[in-house]
Amino acid sequence: MRCWRHTGAEDAFIQAWMRLQMPEPWPRLAGLYHAASFACHMRASEFFARLRECRVRLRDGLLPLEEDEARAIESHLWAFFQAGKQLLDALAREVNLIYWHRDEAGRFDDPLTKARWISFYTVRQKLLTHEQFAHEPIRQLFERHASGQAADPPYRALSHWANVGLVAPLVMGPVVSDVAADHPLSVGRCRILLPDDPRQFPATYDQGFEINATGRSILTWLAWFMDEVYQALTFTLKQMESAR
Q1: In the chain, where are the structural domains located?
Q2: Is the pTM of this model over 0.85?
């Protein structure tokens, strides 16, 4: 198990894991899950960077959806949202692994035999619905920042678009640019609006979803949330160490 991002929260988390000195396969599995979280974060960052580099030629301030440029933007945007969602699921597997050992009632999924059933939503539900975990930092983190209408706006945007993208095209709306549009522009130099919900017609834009601003806020939030998860789990690991 190793540090990948080398933040203070991640370093403390790794050290707390190592101090437990659990027998195999748990340290190895923890290392795999932790590496998966980092890989998902890197994929999300890469897809967003590629998205911003896409070139588009505008027509009357709109993206012609039948052209390759628009399809490339939609493809990278979809991949970005899905990678962000996969990062949350990867973090949930790290949480589940620890709480599977901690919860004597067996409410968490076996990390070895039921890994494919573990998701951010299922782990969050287990933490939020059992009062045993009411004072756990990880539950409080999920409850305050990634649950319901009170969740942080970047989380709500990510959850919304990752789920909508599974059932509907990510149709793009008006484009605003301060640069003359007689030549191809990069997405990073435009303001491309997304409808509030592409499943609804006529489209509305009241939520203010703009590709660049929304993507940046999601990436910033994901990096912050990762460290908050590791900080909360470090507290739990220290409790497990003290209880030995």
Answers
A1: 8-168+217-242
A2: yes
